[in-house]
Design goal:
- The protein is mainly α and about 90 residues long.
- It has four helices and no strands.
- Helix 1 crosses helix 2 and helix 1 packs antiparallel against helix 3.
- It starts with a helix and ends in a 17-residue tail after the last helix.
Length: about 90
């Protein structure tokens, strides 16, 4: 993503720009042209966006359905358990 982004940036910046020298000059021909680099750059971007959204959904779902407080533990540092029994009742029976 970084390399293709700099290659696309270097194409617009011109032939003397550092990003064109370091990335556009060899990466654009390697992929077969600017449009191909642009397409791959956007495809991978949407894969990353999809992964992040799915990851957030799964983390929130796991926090709601599991017996532990995973997300609030990340935020506060204190773990709590969401069962119906108080901690003292576990040893009394």
């Amino acid at each position: 993503m970084i390399m293709t982004g700099f290659a696309l940036y270097g194409e617009g910046a011109g032939t003397g720009h550092w990003s064109h020298v370091l990335f556009s000059s060899w990466l654009l021909p390697l992929f077969g042209g600017s449009q191909s680099v642009h397409s791959w750059h956007h495809l991978v971007m949407w894969l990353i966006v999809s992964f992040v959204l799915i990851h957030i959904y799964v983390a929130i779902r796991e926090d709601k359905l599991s017996g532990q407080s995973m997300l609030s533990t990340i935020a506060t540092g204190w773990r709590t358990f969401k069962d119906d029994k108080p901690v003292d009742d576990a040893h009394s029976s």
